[in-house]
Design goal:
The protein has a single domain, classed as Rossmann fold. Helices cover about 40% and strands about 20% of the residues. The radius of gyration is 15 Å and the shape is globular. The chain has a six-stranded mixed β-sheet, with helices on both faces. The chain is an alpha/beta fold and about 140 residues long.
């Protein structure tokens, strides 16, 4: 388990309204800059609006909503960098905060490594017993795909 840090993070997070209050507390405890969707767009905002806000504000979108995987899959490769990076929380809502606290440094390192390597992360799915990272490797032969 990692300890909270006073060091500023290079990552900002947009938190969907379906994320538990305990998970939000973990992100705040670790000094992460947060925007809560209900404060920015109101409640019950469509997924496309949240994705647009996250991209516009250069945030990582955190949600329990699996629909974001479908939105991202429909985006062409050249448009992917214009979409929000997304963390999808899965599993037991009771243990969500503990799991996020345990994995936050790992998740942020995935994003750093992808940036350095020139890869795009479509989403990171944080589940009770594993982390799934979906990368999109740029196709240099056909950049339209």
């Amino acid at each position: 388990m990692t300890e909270p840090s006073d060091a500023p993070s290079e990552f900002r997070f947009l938190i969907d309204e379906n994320v538990s209050a305990s998970a939000i507390r973990v992100l705040r405890l670790y000094g992460r800059e947060l925007l809560e969707s209900r404060d920015v767009t109101g409640t019950q905002s469509p997924d496309r609006i949240l994705e647009w806000v996250a991209h516009t504000h250069q945030c990582i979108l955190v949600s329990r909503d699996r629909d974001f995987k479908a939105i991202i899959k429909g985006v062409k490769a050249r448009e992917l960098q214009k979409t929000a990076r997304t963390i999808i929380l899965r599993g037991n809502e009771v243990t969500e905060a503990d799991r996020l606290q345990q994995c936050l440094p790992i998740i942020e390192q995935f994003f750093r490594n992808a940036t350095v390597s020139g890869l795009d992360i479509e989403f990171i799915q944080l589940m009770e017993d594993d982390i799934n990272v979906k990368y999109r490797i740029p196709d240099l032969r056909n950049p339209e795909r």
